[in-house]
Each structure stands twice: as structure tokens, then as C-alpha cells.
Amino acid sequence: MQKRIYLDNAATSWPKPTVVYDAVDRYQRENGAPSGRGSSRAAEEVLRLVARARREVSDLLGMDEPNRVIFTNSGTDSLNTAVLGLVRAGDHVVTTVCEHNSVLRPLHYLSDTLGVKVSYVPCDGEGFVSPDDVRRMLQPNTRLVAVVHASNVTGAIQPIGEIGQIAREHGAYYLIDAAQTLGEVPLSFKECQADVIAAPGHKGLLAPLGTGVLCLSERAAKEMIPFRFGGTGTSSENDRQPNELPHKFEAGNLNVPGIVGLAAAMEFHRDYGFEKIHEHHRELAGRLLNGLDAIDGVTIHGPRTAKSRTSVVSFTVKGYDPQEFAAVLEMSTGIECRAGLHCAPRMHAALGTLPTGGTVRLSPGWSTTTEEIEIALMAIAQAASSAL
What residues contact 111, with CB distance under 8 A and at least 6 apart? Predict the structure, then answer.
């Protein structure tokens, strides 16, 4: 059987660390209680596990209040909660062409239904946004600045600290989409001056699918309106959603198996070393960039140096449709990657790859080996040469 070479970690990380599988299986087989829905020993243990995961995420971002870490069902759920909860009728929002549809589509909905105006900051040829352009887009009624930390197409890491300062000076709320960076790239809630950091748990944090985190400043937590209402296990005599955190935004049963896996993943990160994972991603990105740059017919889209990007590397191949090329890689060598628009249409419009179907995207993970990268590069070179 052909070996599976998984290079689609920008979609979801795989494999997970063994401790994640073990923790989820142990909870499912030996506990199974919901969070905040009982007083048995099993239920109390679940409360401790959920609190531990909340504290781990808070510590990772340097936050001083774990209850401002909200658990959601995905990065998309986190972003929707933030955008729909903060923006009001007639507001103005500044975002960028680099954003994922998880930001673009809620904003489009608000534009259609509430008359919200949206300005899209352009990027340069490598996918970087200028803080000066963000400043120029601001209007007196700008309520929200929403910026992706790193593009899932180009891998370009944006200057989020500078942008945060601009948003803070203007009085706007500042939302960072950290879907491609949390767990891989160092990120401090205070240093980037964020009001909201949204991310999935299943990508860089190495947790199971169906997990997301929404990290809030004190002012954002007070101002945001929840759009999901229901049971929280607290204040059950009141038919109004509680204002206390995290219950204000955690209606319904939490995905306890996923959160237990997240807690185990965070412990793995700490023991293995966040910096070690960061450096591994940077090394693999450098190998990919150098190797792809030497292949005739291949065009890299994004920064050419590993220092200013994540390990997400997108490219196109002369003579190939991206989907076709990805299929060739899997059939020939067992390489699993992603091809297409990656849910970021404005990014592809800016790069000029929208009319041709997007890009081929390679995204190594914490367990990807240099040998697997070399196999991928040889397969790309062989396939690209056949079209010249």
C-alpha cells in the first residue's frame, strides 16, 4: 500500500499527538459526563478538565482571565460570534483582501441586512498588508478592524501589532483571525493589542475537529451580543442568557471530547516545546520554498523567505489546473494537499489566481519530516516537467 504523505495541515492537523487520542478515548470510555450538567464525581472531573483547557489557552496567549476564553465549535463559529456580536447597524468595518470566507461572509450578511459598510485593505504581491493603508481606510464610524494573522493562501504574517495600535488609537475593536498561527507562531494577546483572537482548536493547537477558541478583552466581552441562547447549567431559573463569562457565549453542551483533547494537546505543546514546533515549521517552509523555486514552470505565491511566513506554501504549475495537479501528486506519490481557492476569493483575486482556479497548497505539520518534503519536491518536479 502506498504511504500516505499528509501535507494539508492548514485544513486540519494530522496526525494528532498520541496523548490527544488517549485523552479523548479515556474520557469517552471512562467518563462521558457533560460539562456543568451535574454534581457527580464524573461531572466534577469534567469541570476540572474544561477549566484546565481554558487556563492553558489563556496562559499561551498571556491573558490574565481564563474565563474570557470561550469554547466554540470551530474557528468559523468563533469568527461569526465575534463579528455578529460586535457590529451594529450602520457601522463601518475595515478588513483586508486576505481574509477567509469566515470573515467575508458574515460581513457580507451584515452589509445586506444592516447597512454595514466594509472597506477592504489591499495587499502587495506577496500578500502583505500595510498598516498605513489600514489607517487610511478608517472612518469616524469604524467600529471593527478585522485582520487575519497569516493568510491560508500565501502564509504571509501580517504586522498585527502595528495594526492593533492603529485600531486602539481610533477606538475601534480589533479582531485577529489566528486560524493559521495559534500554536505555530508566537502570539501575545496584550502585545498585539487585540480585543478578540479567534482560532480553531484543530489546526496549530493539534486538538480534535469541532473545537474553537474565542479570546476576548474585557471591553469586547461586555459589548458583544451572543447570537446563540440556551442552557448553560447556571442560572436555570432565569430565561435570559447569563451575562457572566464564559456562560454568556457557551449556550448548549460543550464538545467535551474535543476540549479534553485540546487540554491534552496544550500539555503536549508545552512538554514538546512551542518554539521547537515553530522552528520546525520554519525549516520545512524554507525547504519547500528553495525546492519549488528551482523547478521550471512553478510559480510560488507569497513571501519567498521562511522568516516572514508560516509553513503554508501555495504555488501554480504551468500547463496544469490546480485540482488536476493535486490529483497527480496523490496518485503518483500519495501526497495529500489542497487545491483551489481555499475559501479566500479576494486573496486569489489580488494574486491573479482567481480565474485559473486558485493554487496548489502544501502545509506541513509538527510531525512532517524533511524526507517527506523531499519526496514532495521530487514528485512536483517530475509532474511539472511533463507539462513543459
Answer: 117, 118
